[in-house]
Amino acid sequence: MAGRRRRRLLLVSNSTLHGGGYLEHVRPPLRRFLGPDVKRILFVPYALRDRDAYAKMARETFESLGYALDSIHESPDPGEAVRKAEAIFIGGGNTFRLLKVLYDNGLIPLIRKRVLEDGIPYVGSSAGTNVATISIHTTNDMPIVYPPSLLALGLVPFNINPHYLDPDVNSTHMGREFSNGT
Amino acid sequence: MAGRRRRRLLLVSNSTLHGGGYLEHVRPPLRRFLGPDVKRILFVPYALRDRDAYAKMARETFESLGYALDSIHESPDPGEAVRKAEAIFIGGGNTFRLLKVLYDNGLIPLIRKRVLEDGIPYVGSSAGTNVATISIHTTNDMPIVYPPSLLALGLVPFNINPHYLDPDVNSTHMGREFSNGT
């Protein structure tokens, strides 16, 4: 037990901005955040169904920034991949699906240890930002699968809604978009 | 075991339309659906936090339609209230909260029996419509609580999204509103 190190987190709301490419809007901050020591990124594509296509897109982006990228779904031992990672990037998609696979693969305590005790950089985008918080109780995603808990990585002591939209005051639609139903 | 009776379901998407009062848009269909034999409605206010205020509003509406209303949260034995109900109305709010309380109070099999075997009328609105389906995997609500399952009453053999909005093709916001994240 090495005790707590300074947390290094970059939590992004979206992987793309309107009209831009994948992670294009965060290229300079990403480079500053990861710094010169990180050479390889461990990518976690669990939030989307097509992990191969997702990893291909992420790899192209990170390689263009000067980093190698390993996708955890290509590893025979996901836990070992986390234990060896220099930095972790968890991409967006469906937050329920992502959290369920993190639990199914036993990765919650391993990622927590690497970030909170070993101090490796963690980058999250969208669903990857949701799971960095205390819980996913504030996600807007549909519950397409049933994770064993809504508690998440707890890398920060609060929750985030990365896709909050102010209510449309001109709307006459009485359905709920982002309601907690209270 | 009386065997299956004809299902009697009225599944409404919203309790209010823009500018209208509570259930105002469904007064004639409600009366036709419940018919002359039903005298008392069992109301289930579990989807909202303030059950007293919710029951008061529902009672005023149903009394104005000529029905008495009992709210299940005022009963010392919710299961017994379901067993004796002539008709059930489950109102809207947060679908996760509603489903959790239905499970916590052991009401899922009891309501199923009354509707599917005894043939009593079931009215659902919004969250009350969601829980009438196979599961709540297609709700837009936030998961503010963690029910023991996402499976619901299964009164109909499909799921519903009662608040579906067509995508706004003019939006430049890249966040998700109703995405399943696939």
Automatic annotation (TrEMBL), chains A, B:
GO process annotations (BP): proteolysis
Keyword Protease: yes
Family: Belongs to the peptidase S51 family.
UniProt-recorded name of the protein: Alpha-aspartyl dipeptidase-like
InterPro entries assigned: Class_I_gatase-like, Peptidase_S51
A Pfam family recorded for this sequence: Peptidase_S51
Keywords: Hydrolase, Protease, Serine protease
One GO molecular-function entry: serine-type peptidase activity
Originating species: Eublepharis macularius (Leopard gecko)
